[in-house]
What we know:
Protein name: GTP-binding protein
Order of helices and strands: EEEEEEEEEEHE
Number of strands: 11
Mean pLDDT: 96
Organism: Amycolatopsis regifaucium
Keywords: Leucine-rich repeat, Repeat
Number of helices: 1
Helix content: under 10%
Structural class: mainly beta
Low-confidence stretches: none
Radius of gyration: 19 Å
InterPro entries: Leu-rich_rpt, Leu-rich_rpt_typical-subtyp, LRR_dom_sf, LRR_domain-containing
Strand content: 5-15%
Amino acid sequence: xxxxxELSGQGxxxxxxxxxPPSLEYLDLYDNQLTSVPExxxxxxxxxxxxxxxxxxxxxxxxxxxxxxxxxxxxxHNELSAVPDELGDLSGLTxxxxxxxxxxxxxxxxxxxxxxxxYLGCTDNRISTLPEDLSGLRSLRELRLxxxxxxxxxxxxxxxxxxRELHLRRNRLTSLPSSVGxxxxxxxxxxxxxxLTSLPSSxxxxxxxxxxxxxxxKNFREPSWLADFEARGCMVLR
Length: 238
């Protein structure tokens, strides 16, 4: 039986007097007022799910790298300007990692070591560039990067061969690399509210794409092959 502790929305400002049994596997501290967490939390070696979203955290200890059983981690909606490189040591992180709505100015390069991760959300931060080599994220099925300041994507985006959804709304992209056409499993591509004027012809190869959202790209010139997408049932939003 999973040992759970669910304390969401309790107005907690500290965990100092909270017993944290070593057997804990599921810890939900969502929507409190925590500005920090005790170091002993990182010694919960059986922890599989940790939700610290919607608090007031400004930093995460490098000791988080000891949570090798963790498969789901939510650090969204805090005040983090950086995360420790030790996040890349979380080899058990297979399901979800949420870093959305923080104050990140850089995409944490250490995350590219998470070769088993399926879902990554880094939305609504201040990220302007991505690492040149994203190939380590080979198991990603969904990547959400909307609401940042991205001006370009690296060619290595095309190595994410398991990717099914790519969400890039509300950035500053003026073009896409041709390697996006190599994302053979892609079903959804959201490009709303960028500065795109064209698309690489390689995108015409995305045979499994069923939704392409191009709205609010002011000077976009529509390629002729979009009609072929629609003819086979892909929803194209302009």
